Every structure is written in structure tokens, then in C-alpha cells.
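Progress report, Aim 2. The chain analyzed during this reporting quarter is listed below.
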Amino acid sequence: MADTSSSSAHAPVQAVSGIMPPAIPVRGVRIAGTGSQLPSKVISNDLLASVVQTNDEWIQQRTGIRERRMCDRSKGESNRWLCTESLRKALAAANMKASELDLIICGTISQDMRCPSTACLVAADLGAGTAAAWDLGAACCGFVYPLNVAHDLIRVGTHKAIGIIGCDTITAILDYHNRGVCILFGDGAGAAVLVADSDPSRGCLAQVNKADGTGWTDLFQPAEEWQIPEGVDRTTTKLGCLQMNGKAVFKFAVGTFQELIAETLTKAGISAEQVDVFVCHQSNARILDAARERFGIPPEKLHVNIDRVGNTSAGSVPLVLDELMLAGKIKPGMIVMFVAFGAGLTWTSSLWRV
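Predicted C-alpha cells for the chain:
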């Protein structure tokens, strides 16, 4: 066998080109501002009971939800509007202009139209100039995935300021004869502006980003009949509407939620007691309660708003974040864990020193 140890294929990069990659800067990442936006129309459990066989007590016992929001098209409310207003508020909280952003990432699966991206429309609405912009489709993980991406782009020095948005208008893709699905979801959006910080201790301490595509059949939205998987009743599946295997998704969420928190804590080398605030996806109050019991998390450390807004998918985590920020419950130096899981199946976390 020929000796190839001295061949150019094995030579270091600098020996071939004479160019070394730039050093990674030592910089922190700070959440400079947050914002959120909800539609004006309130859908109560009693209102749902007038169109599908259910009642307020049944819904609250199983989900913890009392009401949720729905976009009112007659008032100009839409996915784009929710995204734009939430990021506008986040920029105001950060005392920044949209033109200072390098990038806008919008996490959503319910865009008003497929092309162009909602992020590009938001950039135009806010005057972000030539900032890069794209949408990221990860369902209920649609804010925490971008949070991790944006953090790392700033940490390595390629970007200085990024606006991230989590938004979904799931009510537009619901079959209101499907009781197991229509009671859960509402519309809403939240946003955050991330910037480089001179303190390298600020930012993400540990993160987990995972998916299991084999579980896609448990939560999906078929546009055409051929997209309906085998074993699903085609006679009761309404095209264009969200379909869910409730029992399977609940089992996945309960187990994954707790494992995700444990894995993130292990990566960071800290205990649950050392986390000041848990900012969690609001899928079901029973799932939140189960995680709180396992890790001994006191109620004041795990904020819940699902009773008022329902499951807002990608909007869930940033809505909680903005409520906490406005209430002054997240302060510089605190340890904050973001957790989400959803269709895909996807799950993700981000543990920060804010």
C-alpha cells in the first residue's frame, strides 16, 4: 500500500492555502428585548361547546384550558400581523431599530402564504433593510430551535443582532368537528431580539435539539389524500386540517418533556434547584404538572398561561417569556431553561444565563 501520509489530501489547511480560519471571538449573548401579540377574538370553552360535543368542565379537566384566541380577518389580524407586531414590541423593548438587525428567523408552520417567507414580509413591514430572513418549520419547537441557532451565530461572531419570532395561527387549520384537536389550539406570537454582549458568561450554557421523523404520523396536516398515512381513517380525515393521535402525542410529550429537562441539566452539570425559571411549551396543564412533580419545581418557577391562550404552538414559549419579562420575573444573571416539543416529532431545550 502506498504511503499517503505526506500527500496534500492530508495536509493541514494552512499548508494548502496559507489562510487560517478566523478565531472564534469570546463574546456573550444577551436577550435585549421581548414582545408578544395575541388576536382580539376570544374563543371560550362554552363557545366551542356550541359547535362540537364538549363542555367547559371536560376541557379544563383534560387540558387546563379555559379560553384561547383566534385571528379576526375582518380586523386585519393574520400570522404576518402577529409576527410583525411581536417583533416590533421586542425591538422597542431593546431600544433598537429594525435596520440594526442582521437576521430575522420566524418559526411557524401556519404562514399566510407559502412564498415569500413570513420573515421576509416582517422585515419589509418593519424596515429591516437587507437583513437576511427565513422561516423555520418545527411546529411547537418553532421558537426554541431558532433561539439556539441565533445564539450560536452571534456567539461565533458572524452576526451581532438577530430577531427571532415564534408564531402560529393554528385555528385556521382546525376541523371544528374534531373534538380532540379543536379544543387545544389558539393563535398567538412572541419574539425576542438577541445581541452580542461583552460578558462571555451570558448566553446558552447547554442545549438539546432532536427529532424523530418516524413519529410524523401522530401529528400532521395533509394537503392531499395521498399524504394520509396507512391506518388512518380517510373518511373522517379532513384535508388541510391538523390531524392528531391524541393518546400517542400525550405519551410522547410526558416522557420526552421530563427526559429533555434531565438531559439538559446533565449537560450543564447543574440541578433543577439551580434553575431560576422554566419557560416551557404550553401543550397541556397535566404535562406541566407531571414535570413539576418529578423535578420538585415550585409553581413560581414554572409559569403557566395555557388556561388563557391554549396551545399556541411556536408562539407558546415566547408568549410565556414575554409575560415573565414584563412582570420582572426574569432578571440579569438568572438561570433560565427553555423547553419545547411538538410535531415532527421534535424536541428541544436551551439553558441560559440571561
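The mean pLDDT is 92. The radius of gyration is 21 Å. These observations will guide the mutagenesis work planned for the next reporting period.
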